[in-house]
TrEMBL record:
<dbReference type="InterPro" id="IPR052157">
    <property type="entry name" value="BCAA_transport_permease"/>
</dbReference>
<keyword id="KW-0812">Transmembrane</keyword>
<keyword id="KW-0472">Membrane</keyword>
<feature type="transmembrane region" description="Helical">
    <location>
        <begin position="42"/>
        <end position="61"/>
    </location>
</feature>
<dbReference type="GO" id="GO:0015808">
    <property type="term" value="P:L-alanine transport"/>
</dbReference>
<keyword id="KW-1133">Transmembrane helix</keyword>
<protein>
    <submittedName>
        <fullName>Branched-chain amino acid transport system permease protein</fullName>
    </submittedName>
</protein>
<dbReference type="GO" id="GO:1903806">
    <property type="term" value="P:L-isoleucine import across plasma membrane"/>
</dbReference>
<comment type="similarity">
    <text>Belongs to the binding-protein-dependent transport system permease family. LivHM subfamily.</text>
</comment>
<dbReference type="Pfam" id="PF02653">
    <property type="entry name" value="BPD_transp_2"/>
</dbReference>
<keyword id="KW-0029">Amino-acid transport</keyword>
<dbReference type="GO" id="GO:0015188">
    <property type="term" value="F:L-isoleucine transmembrane transporter activity"/>
</dbReference>
<dbReference type="GO" id="GO:0005886">
    <property type="term" value="C:plasma membrane"/>
</dbReference>
<feature type="transmembrane region" description="Helical">
    <location>
        <begin position="189"/>
        <end position="214"/>
    </location>
</feature>
<dbReference type="GO" id="GO:0015192">
    <property type="term" value="F:L-phenylalanine transmembrane transporter activity"/>
</dbReference>
<dbReference type="GO" id="GO:0042941">
    <property type="term" value="P:D-alanine transmembrane transport"/>
</dbReference>
<dbReference type="GO" id="GO:0005304">
    <property type="term" value="F:L-valine transmembrane transporter activity"/>
</dbReference>
């Protein structure tokens, strides 16, 4: 039983990181129906901004986290403004190809500026080992990562459901053609969406860097995992992205613990296929109606 609880804690930490990335996929898709394949690389950029702030500037965690989130949010807004805005009404394939190009550009610019080597973020959070009843072991940084991630998700939920801008976000997600007629600045709403998604991805990148190593290509694998999580939960749904992320993390962690680490990616994609056969729009997604 202790081993299962231990694995659940590991899965919760990984799921929290997936959720912070998956929320960006889900929000952007919900607003402009774009699968932003560059989002995994924005997550990578956030991790490296945190790395540079920690190693070059020597800043503490409580400064690094908001600063990295702010800088990565600006990167996300710049990408939307430069690469996506003029293609907003173009064919979907043009946007997808542009997103892939932006991702490759980010990977290469980071590789040139920082180098291709694998890096490790210095410990930013207390990492004392705590012994829980039943022989369960957990570190303080793991607890903090889970709690801070959940707090960020809660703040996002409150922002979307309890603020005026959140109401505008939901209105644009419902019908972005009519909303501008009501005086809502569509460009501003979309920019806010990219800013929030990118900021959350930066938080996920820093948390990931605390537990694992980082490199310029880390966004490919993690980005795909978060995308799968968003699709499983129902892409476009904030609650679905969080649910799908924790489900995927649990499947991965338990696959590694009880089967083989070589099977975790295959099982993740297998889970995606099976769940989409049951819920074509994802667990919490809404089916799209098409006029004929």
């Amino acid at each position: 039983m202790a081993i299962i609880i231990q694995q659940l804690l590991n899965a919760t930490q990984l799921g929290a990181v997936y959720a912070l990335i998956a929320l960006g996929y889900s929000m952007v898709y919900g607003i402009i129906r774009l699968i932003n394949f560059a989002h995994g690389d924005i997550f990578m950029v956030g991790a490296f901004i945190g790395f540079l702030l920690a190693t070059l500037a020597g800043l503490p965690f409580y400064v690094i986290m908001p600063l990295a989130m702010l800088l990565t949010a600006l990167v996300g807004v710049a990408i939307e403004r430069i690469a996506y805005r003029k293609l907003r009404n173009a064919q979907r394939m043009s946007l997808v190809i542009t997103a892939l190009g932006v991702g490759i550009f980010l990977e290469n610019i980071v590789r040139v500026l920082v180098g291709p080597q694998t890096r490790q973020l210095p410990p930013l959070l207390p990492d004392a080992i705590l012994q829980l009843p039943g022989g369960i072991v957990i570190t303080e940084d793991k607890i903090l990562i889970i709690l801070i991630s959940l707090a960020l998700m809660m703040i996002l939920w409150l922002f979307v459901n309890k603020t005026l801008m959140g109401t505008a976000l939901r209105a644009v997600a419902d019908n972005k053609e009519i909303v501008p007629l009501m005086g809502i600045n569509l460009n501003q709403v979309i920019a806010v969406t990219f800013a929030i998604g990118s900021a959350l991805a930066a938080a996920g990148g820093i948390f990931f860097g605390q537990a694992y190593s980082i490199d310029p290509y880390m966004g490919i694998d993690l980005g795909w995992k978060a995308f799968i999580a968003a699709v499983i939960g129902g892409i476009g749904s904030i609650e679905g992205a969080v649910l799908g992320s924790f489900m995927l993390a649990e499947v991965e962690v338990f696959s590694v613990a009880y089967l083989s680490s070589n099977l975790k990616n295959g099982i993740a994609f297998g889970l995606l296929i099976v769940l989409l056969l049951i819920w074509p729009s994802g667990i919490m997604g809404k089916p799209m109606l098409k006029k004929v």
